[in-house]
Amino acid sequence: MASGVHCDIEEHRRGEVAVVAVTGTVDSVTTPQLEAAIATAAANRPAAVVVDLLAVDFLSSTGMGVLMAAHADITPAIRFAVVADGPATSRPLKLVGIADVVGLYANLDEAIDAVTSGGV
């Protein structure tokens, strides 16, 4: 791994929702971790997978590609949403149009409410 680049990923459940919480940098070095974590979460067949990027300080185009691929791979069988807020995450997701395809929420509670109510 490159010096100074870190990405910590933890999965936990909120009821029937798998939450993949990411901290740090999501770039070409760390995206395989994110891709694997989302695949593992989806393999357990939750009602939904929510990727929480609130603690991410950099989201590369490669990371955005992983989110789009995950959305394409697991929906509609499993609902999918992303939590992102701020210039490092939600802004690029909106600029490139991913927020038009993937449910994007400013906090985890909003995302959980949306995926459990069938809003995504």
From TrEMBL:
Pfam families: STAS
GO molecular function, one term: anti-sigma factor antagonist activity
CDD domains: STAS_anti-anti-sigma_factors
Domain of life per record: Bacteria
PROSITE patterns: STAS
The STAS domain, residue ranges: 7-115
InterPro entries assigned: STAS_dom, STAS_dom_sf
Stored PANTHER family: ANTI-SIGMA FACTOR ANTAGONIST TM_1081-RELATED-RELATED, ANTI-SIGMA-F FACTOR ANTAGONIST RSFB
Protein name: Anti-anti-sigma factor
Species this chain originates from: Mycolicibacterium bacteremicum (Mycobacterium bacteremicum)
Lineage, uppermost ranks: Bacteria, Bacillati, Actinomycetota, Actinomycetes, Mycobacteriales
